[in-house]
Amino acid sequence: MAELRRDGDQLEVRLTVTEKIAGLRGNIRVPASAVAAVAVSDQPLSAVAGVRAPGLHLPGRTKIGTWRHAGRKTFAVARRGVPAIRVDLVGQRYDRLVISQPDAATVAEALG
């Protein structure tokens, strides 16, 4: 399962090999200064809108990869039944990250 964590002045999304293949990309690192907002979503699949390009979508189960909607890009590893951390970014390749983690509330609080 993907892991979102803070590493010094960087925010890192560490993906499993399967998630890297499904999302057609590697781990993501962004400066912590690019974080505009952090929230927890109990409905992670609903937090990801738009057209998948590229990635994997199993309706009602999971969304992994890049989604484009209204001029914005979201990278997601969203799984049904697993809360997600939603991170809004400024000036980065992605405008939003949505990452499911069982301990989403704890991680979101640590990210501030």
Number of helices: 2
Q: Which percent bin holds the helix content?
A: 10-25%
Work out the strand percent.
Answer: over 45%
Describe the strand arrangement of the main beta sheet, using strand numbers: 4-8-9-7-6-5
Distance separating the two termini: 22 Å
- Largest sheet composition: 6 strands, mixed
Please tell me how large the radius of gyration is. Answer: 12 Å
Low-confidence stretches: none
Number of domains: 1
- The ordered string of helix (H) and strand (E) elements is EEHEEEEEEEH
Q: Which class best fits the helix and strand makeup?
A: mainly beta
Shape: globular
Organism: Mycolicibacterium chlorophenolicum
Protein name: Bacterial Pleckstrin homology domain-containing protein
Topology:
Elements lengths: L2 E5 L2 E5 L2 H7 L4 E4 L3 E7 L9 E8 L3 E8 L2 E8 L4 E6 L6 E5 L3 H8 L1
Parallel strand pairs: 7-9
Antiparallel strand pairs: 1-2, 2-3, 4-8, 5-6, 6-7, 8-9
Characterization of this structure:
- This protein is mainly beta.
- It has one domain.
- The protein has two helices and nine strands.
- The strands form two sheets. A six-stranded mixed β-sheet has the order 4-8-9-7-6-5. The chain has a three-stranded antiparallel β-sheet with strand order 1-2-3, covered by helices on one side.
- The relative contact order is 0.24.
- The mean pLDDT is 96.
- This is Bacterial Pleckstrin homology domain-containing protein.
